[in-house]
Amino acid sequence: MLAASFSGVAAPLGDVGGGFTSEGDSRHVGLLRLLSRIWDAITSFTRPPNAATLFRRANLYRQEGRFEEAAELVSQGLRLAPNNGVGHLLSAYLHLAFRQIGPAKSEFQAVLDLDPYHPRALLGLAKIALEERDIAQCRPFLDKALQYYPDFPEARALQEMVASWSMTPAAQGQRQVYAGPPILVEKLKPPAGGREFVLTQADGTLVFSQQGDKDAEDLAGHVTQVYRIASATLQRAGLGAFRRGIIQAVTETTFFRSNDKLILALSFPQDVKVGFGLLETDKLWTNSLRELGIRA
Amino acid sequence: MSPEPTPLGRPASARAREFRRILAEMLKIDRVRGGLVVAADGLVITASLPRGIAVEPLAALTATLGRELEVGADRLKRTAFHTALFSSDDGTVFLGSSPVGFVVVLGDREVNVGLVQWALRKALATLEGTWGAPVPAGPEDL
User: Fold this and answer.
1) Which of the four pLDDT bands, split at 50, 70 and 90, describes residue A19?
2) Which of A93, A124, A137, B94 has the CB geometry, 3.0–4.6 Å to B105, for a possible disulfide?
3) Interface pTM (ipTM) of the complex?
4) What domains are defined for chain B?
5) Could you list the residue range(s) of the whole structural domain that residue A16 is in?
């Protein structure tokens, strides 16, 4: 009887340590615990929070997209605990959220200085290497993260994406050269208003460009990268292979067309009618395939 | 698939609620199969995806795609991208850029592309407003 009433009253409040012999005692303890919690809540307003509390709150803010407030709490926390890995990781994430890549990189590195196999820091550095198109640097970070944490879905998705990529960009002058049939430039004339027309192969090889060499290589690099990541995204969403794309920016709209081998990109001023852009891109696509001897 | 985005099991601030509301509005559009709001670092702020599509890998890829569009434009001295769409034979991924990160919408092959783009632009404008708005303190802030 006593045991039954004890478990019914005191158990929900947690382990009371035993040694009580009556229902009155256990109620007394329960009341004391309640008073203790109220006291803790009151004093928490005046007591300065510790680093762990600051990081926990910062993470909650971050998850709600309240990055500025989170960043303030993280810097407070790191002043209290400068060698705290959680703090440096949060700091790295927040720098990334603010698109501050250099500081994010340093903070991820600070985490790895404390824990060389920290999977999230390794993933963070892999993503930055990807942004910098340094695939040779990106792969080892992903491999290392997955070596110890094979069930890491984000790292696995990126590793699968980059697995088939060539190690572009090569040094200037060493870039892969298009070795297909010669192209008659006059047959690949972009329409009025069309600019930055570029054709690349899926492996990044530049096939044709309206622009000069250096600009063409940069543009081809970007177009290939967008194609590769968008293809992986479409596949991951269960939607199949990349066929078309439209990117709308402040001053231009870029149209993409692709099969699994070739990618075409063509830009127009921002106010272009989408229907017109699609139509002209399709015409240029058909001409390009014909010129290259590829079946549609 | 639930029309309401996943709450991710934590108390909602005004801004977090707004993200979920924005995504819920997008999900009401006919032939939209799912969507998410993801920060530039790949953090999922809110998501609602069809069964069988894991959120973390898709978030990692869409954040990477969004960042390539931002970084690539910068590298080519182009202006920042606002919205983008990528289509296959079976559907379309829509992507919108905002200060908080990227809004991603998945549509099937018969989705009304113009309608989603219009709704996405509206959502991005709201998101920018929400981002800039002062954040009221809630009980969870104490």
Assistant:
1) very low
2) B94
3) 0.86
4) 14-132 (3.30.450.30)
5) 2-44
